[in-house]
Write a structure and sequence with these properties.
This protein is about 35% helix and about 30% strand. The chain has a single domain, classed as 3-Layer(aba) Sandwich (Rossmann fold). The longest helix has 18 residues, at about 180-195. Strands 6-7-8-3-9-10 form a 6-stranded mixed beta sheet, with helices on both faces. A 4-stranded antiparallel beta sheet has the order 2-1-4-5, with helices on one face. It is α/β, with parallel strands linked by helices.
C-alpha cells in the first residue's frame, strides 16, 4: 500500500481567461504520488503550485489532460461528488488559518466530522485525539482570538487531521509563522505523516518547509523542471 498511487496526472494543462486571451498556468504536468509521501511543490509565486494543489483538492478542474485522485477523475466529478470526496478523504491547511472565530477550538476541530455520519461518541474521541496529536488539549475551550499564530495553525492541522484523511494538502502553511513555530508545525505534520501514513503535499517556497520534505517537485512557469527524492522513504 505504501507505494500505491493515490494521485496521478497525465498531460495536465490548466488555462485561465485573461482579457481577450488565455494564460496557461499549468503545462503538461505528469506526476504521481504514493501513499504516505511527504512531498512539496516548490517554486516562486506564479509557478503554478497553488493551482496544482487546488486541482488535487478538487477545488478546480483541468482544462486538458487527466487527474485521478483516490480513483476519482477530477474533471468528471459533479460539484456534489467533488464535495463528498473532499469531506471524506482530504484535509486542507492554508496560510490563513480559516478558523471560525465564534467557535471554540474543540468546535473548530469538530466541524469536518459534522459533515460526515459520525456518532457523538466517535466525534468526541476523534476531536480529543486530534488535539492531543498537536499538543492543544488544554486549549479546547479557548476561542481563536485567544490563541497565538502557532497555536492557531496547530488547530488548523488538528481540523485537517481529525477525520484521518488519505491526503493533506498544505498551501504555504508556515507563511505567517516565525522560525520556532514553523519548525514545531512541520515536526507535528512529519510525525502525523509517519504515524498515520497520511500523504502530505505542500505548496511552498519556504526553505524551512523544504528542509523537511522527502520529495521536492520544482515548478517554473507552469512546468515541472525537477522532481527529486531528498531522502529514502
Amino acid at each position: 500500500m505504501k507505494n500505491s498511487k493515490i494521485i496521478t496526472t497525465d498531460g495536465l494543462i490548466k488555462r485561465f481567461p485573461v482579457g481577450g486571451g488565455e494564460f496557461t498556468a499549468l503545462n503538461d504536468i505528469n506526476l504521481s504520488f504514493g501513499k504516505g509521501e511527504f512531498a512539496g511543490l516548490v517554486g516562486p509565486s506564479g509557478s503554478g503550485k497553488t493551482t496544482l494543489l487546488n486541482i488535487f483538492g478538487s477545488l478546480d478542474t483541468p482544462s486538458e489532460g487527466k487527474v485521478v485522485v483516490l480513483d476519482q477523475s477530477i474533471g468528471e466529478l459533479t460539484h456534489k461528488e467533488a464535495a463528498k470526496m473532499r469531506n471524506k478523504y482530504l484535509g486542507f491547511i492554508f496560510q490563513t488559518y480559516n478558523l471560525l472565530p465564534v467557535y471554540t477550538v474543540y468546535e473548530n476541530v469538530e466541524f469536518p466530522l459534522l459533515l460526515l455520519d459520525t456518532s457523538a461518541e466517535e466525534c468526541r474521541k476523534s476531536v480529543l485525539d486530534a488535539l492531543e496529536w498537536v499538543g492543544l488539549t488544554d486549549k479546547l475551550k479557548s476561542r481563536p482570538a485567544q490563541l497565538s499564530g502557532g497555536e492557531s495553525q496547530r488547530v488548523a492541522i488538528a481540523r485537517a487531521m481529525v477525520k484521518k484523511p488519505e491526503v493533506v494538502l498544505a498551501d504555504e502553511p508556515t507563511a505567517n509563522l516565525d522560525a520556532a513555530n514553523s519548525h514545531h508545525i512541520l515536526q507535528t505534520m512529519e510525525k502525523l505523516n509517519r504515524e498515520l501514513n497520511t500523504t502530505f503535499i505542500f505548496a511552498t517556497h519556504d526553505e524551512k518547509v523544504i528542509r523537511y520534505l522527502r520529495r521536492k517537485i520544482s515548478l517554473e512557469d507552469g512546468r515541472v523542471v525537477n522532481d527529486e527524492y531528498l531522502m529514502d522513504e
